[in-house]
Amino acid sequence: MLTNLRIFAMSHQTIPSVHINNLCCYKIRASLKRLKPYVLLGRNYSSLPGLIGNDIKSLHSVINPPIAKIRNIGIMAHIDAGKTTTTERILYYSGYTRSLGDVDDGDTVTDFMAQERERGITIQSAAVTFDWKGYRVNLIDTPGHVDFTLEVERCLRVLDGAVAVFDASAGVEAQTLTVWRQADKHKIPRICFLNKMDKTGASFKYAVESIREKLKAKPLLLQLPIGEAKTFKGLVDVVTKEKLLWNSNSNDGKDFERKSLLEVSDPELLKETTEARNALIEQVADLDDEFADLVLGEFSENFDLLPAEKLQHAIHRVTLAQTAVPVLCGSALKNKGVQPLLDAVTMYLPSPEERNYEFLERISRLLLPFADQHIEISSLTAGNIALTVGLKHTATGDTLVSSKSSALAAARRAEREGEKKHRQNNEAERLLLAGVEIPEPVFFCTIEPPSVAKQPDLEHALKCLQREDPSLKVRLDPDSGQTILCGMGELHIEIIHDRIKREYGLETYLGPLQVAYRETILNSACATDTLDRTLGDKRHLVTVEVEARPIETSSLMPVIEYAESISEDLLKVSQQAIENGIHSACLQGPLLGSPVQDVAITLHSLTVYPGTSTTMISACVSRCVQKALKKADKQVLEPLMNLEVTVARDYLSPVLGDLAQRRGNIQEIQTRQDNKVVIGFVPLAEIMGYSTALRTLTSGSATFALELSTYQAMNPQDQNTLLNRRSGLT
Ligand SMILES: Nc1nc2c(ncn2[C@@H]2O[C@H](COP(=O)(O)OP(=O)(O)OP(=O)(O)O)[C@@H](O)[C@H]2O)c(=O)[nH]1
């Protein structure tokens, strides 16, 4: 019986993926890839390898493993921290691929969209399934670029655990903070991987400190690096007191030596490791009562006697409780430290069972994702990730159920659990997946098909792309009738444009990119309006009086109030129409036609001639609200972005000078190794084309991250310039 099916996302050929767990429902866990219309493979798995390409070595793992041996994990990080490189190494060591992919050469498995390979960045999440030492790992590589934050959210909400990858020379960066917060929201147990230990400026200590300070997390140091930057050659396993050294003659890092640390050969390292292990034991005992009892009882005199296995179990529990995060290190590029990372994934991150999802189920057509390839399978055991096809009316965030009664039962249970929520450990959230928070798009532009005849094709393409990516918004300009694309950033819109061309064969034209402004009013204003129209032999007559006044909410939804004189009976039949009218008026402000925020609308009086249609009531209210908004003093609000620029010391002054010209407001300049990190705010309108400008200013030595902070009032001079420009006066 099909009970709960939670749609996580859709794609162009409508392939959401499904997470199946062990009771009576299953949910869509990750929408991963577009399905190409190729013939699906049969169930004779022995014939699969040849069919899905030379790169894939083995598909024996299609056989269902027990749920305790499944790990559904994501990889998350700041852009360029090395997620894709780490994923490629993981795939190679697990035997999934035969050769090492390289982002710089554009031949990775997970970055398979053409744009990803061309630009060397991850845009869409890719899913791969592989085995590691008897465990089945379903892994999702997520994008790091700020324009694709929603894609990261889509993935996080369906994962059981995550690996956060850091650039060890930079520590916690802006985007890491964002994804970390998202992972907190979805309560995802994590382990940290300090990558790029080989890079000049890499510092294990610095990166660990930044995890402690910026993420406010308690790092559990499970490894120590042997050497740093140029001298990095291996690591110490603090739990087992072993050293792991990679063979310098091995090109691919497959061979490495694991040896117990001995007093005779490594006295210093052994001392350092023993201290780190003792500190780790104390730290874990502090967080886990069961372990504390063990340590205080049997092993209080000598922690050295404590078996590694006991410590590992306790670390697993602490990781699951999210009271601390295991920290590991390595260099994906130099092929060091990835196998122990995989061991840690299986050892410390939870199985779906431990995350208490309650699902199990069968579906008529299931596909296993192998990046851009899919293999049809007949069934899947609990805890796995798979894709399903053909759900045409379902979008991201939906829950599908097999019958009304099961839906009601699930809702009732969620409600009951919701009531207990404050007392108990939030059972309701386990039952239903949290929704995806869709960020407000800050840019928009017009999009036109090559000819009027192609308009329906464009609409179809946009509809499909929107189902896959809800952060893309499409609307019609009521005045010009043009189609408007609203997105998260320049790159986001560029990629959508490119995908329409490549995937739907449509050459479209984009208008200039524009900032999504908002408007508000500064004082109250009243207006009255009458609409009197006779259609056929029916007279429609409405008279309305409204007041618009500013309030402090930072919300696009107007607060709607009714004067006491308005009769309840009248409201019963016309409230919906009144509110529709108010909302539609607030969508198009009087200054720029942008949405109006922070307003309250009071309906002071309403008279309706008997037989007047509700559409006429809506139209009259809308016109009257627009009149009131027009009368008030008005203000344009512009998106203000949080900006973080990391730049080599030598280039700090040109960057600051440039930001001053962009109306930037610098809050703080931090020192991070040899770099300066500039933190501040800048209006979005001033930051268009910034990546190119920054590259030129700093000879490519700087990176930046951008995130919407708030909408702020423009100063009168800038507002006038903008209004004049929009009305064609300048
Ligand atoms: N020195 C050094 N460079 C690395 C390491 N890992 C990755 N890189 C380099 O860092 C750059 C970014 O690597 P990616 O793997 O694409 O990073 P990413 O986090 O997937 O980037 P996005 O997909 O754009 O978010 C590439 O030039 C890699 O070669 C490492 O361990 N050491």
List the keywords.
730 residues; alpha+beta; Rossmann fold; Alpha-Beta Plaits; 5 domains; seven-stranded mixed β-sheet; five-stranded antiparallel β-sheet; disordered N terminus; binds guanosine-5'-triphosphate
CATH homologous superfamily label of the largest domain: P-loop containing nucleotide triphosphate hydrolases
The gross shape turns out to be elongated
Largest sheet: 7 strands, mixed
Mean pLDDT: 78
**Domains, number:** 5
Task: Give unreliable regions as ranges.
Answer: 1-62, 120-124, 421-434
Q: Which structural class do you get from the secondary structure elements? A: alpha+beta
Taking the alpha carbons of the first and last residues, their distance comes to 65 Å
**CATH topology call of the largest domain:** Rossmann fold
Count of separate DSSP helical elements: 19
User: Helical proportion?
Assistant: 25-40%
Small ligands present: guanosine-5'-triphosphate
Radius of gyration: 29 Å
CATH architecture level-2 label of the largest domain: 3-Layer(aba) Sandwich
- Please tally the β strands and state the result: 32
**The CATH class of the largest domain:** Alpha Beta
- Could you give the order of strands across the largest sheet? 5-6-4-7-8-14-9
Beta-strand percentage range: 25-35%
